[in-house]
Amino acid sequence: MTTPTRRFPLDAWALAALAVVLGAIPFFASGYVLYVVNLLMVFVILALGMHVVIGEAGQFALSHTAFYGIGIYVAGLINTHWHPPFVLSILAGGLVAAALGYVIGLLALRMRDIYLALATFAFGEAMQWVFLNWESVTGGSNGMRMQPAQMLGLTLTNDLQAYPFVVGIAALMLGVTVWLSRSQFGSALRAVRESDVAAMAMGIDARAMKQSAFAVSAAFAGIAGGTYTLFISFIHPESLGFQTTILILTMVVVGGIGSVRGAVAGALAFGIISEMLRQALSIQEILYGAILLGFMMFKPRGLFADAKKRIARPHGQAAAGAAALKGRAA
């Protein structure tokens, strides 16, 4: 009697292949390719953060780029003035963004759907105005020059030196996202996404969950911003506009709302597309708009969402509520 062979999960194969590619890139790639891959890793962190607030919690927020910019400026300013190990400056950017995200999460307690989207969009536009006009801090329209990051006596002066740290941070944030999705916290978020009333009937504090989702999502964006400072030398507020928010939203929607693998795949695919169309910004806007419209009409769950909803493994009362509501683990 033969023992049935255990199939290796497709996600594990994909991650293994990606790890092999990322490990080989520094040995044959040019400086520009390394820069693009570093940028793709930042996009992955950003998409994972938006996945938390939209895919897991169901809160349609358009303020992600604002928190990304906060992470960039906080980490950049701390590094410029005090030169600490870059881990501290990145954590500081994430914490400041998380604190503001928790405050912005108050909007989710009073608004929903299009009203929440408009309110968070307004916050994002207000923050870009701050980046453009607070010249004594951000440099305003002249932009801000970044000092090289430092760690254990090593100064990161090029993309190759920053590469292993950027990839490592992206891998860490991917692991954190998967852990959150499978935890009691993730089950509670999905329960709130399906129905506030039913979630509260199961003993879940829907208000706290919504604010926590905003804080965690903002922390991801802030960490992405701090990671970006490891390989750039200059930042201008124009790169932190609404177009960046639409790009990240497109990554999550096309990849599959509520799917971790979809967020990663969408970030890699559209990060490459955005770089290929760097010299044609008007075409970018038309392309992203057309893609978003097409997927909303014909494939609203995206390319990589699970074909069937899976019931989360029970982990206490919050997970039981999520299971009853058919909460879906990415």
Name the features:
disordered C terminus, 330 residues, 71% helix, two-stranded antiparallel sheet
Rg, nearest Å = 20 Å
Mean pLDDT: 85
Total helical segments: 15
SSE pattern = HHHHHHHEEEHHHHEHHHH
Shape: globular
Q: Quick one: how many beta strands?
A: 4
Percentage of residues in strands: under 5%
Task: Give me the side-by-side strand order of the main sheet.
Answer: 1-4
Estimated structural class:
mainly alpha
Please mark out the parts with pLDDT under 50 across 5 or more consecutive residues, or reply none. 1-6, 307-330
The main pleated sheet reads as:
2 strands, antiparallel
Structure description:
With 330 residues, the protein is mainly alpha-helical. Helix content is 71%, strand content 2%. The protein is built from 15 helices and 4 strands. The protein has helices at 10-28, 31-56, 64-82, 86-104, 106-110, 114-133, 135-138, 159-182, 184-194, 196-201, 206-228, 242-255, 260-276, 281-298, 316-324; strands at 144-145, 150-151, 154-155, 234-235. The strands form 2 sheets. It has a two-stranded antiparallel ribbon. A two-stranded antiparallel sheet has the order 2-3. Strand 2 and strand 3 form a beta hairpin. Helix 4 runs antiparallel to helix 11 (206-228), helix 8 runs antiparallel to helix 11 and helix 9 runs parallel beside helix 15 (316-324). The radius of gyration is 20 Å and the shape is globular.
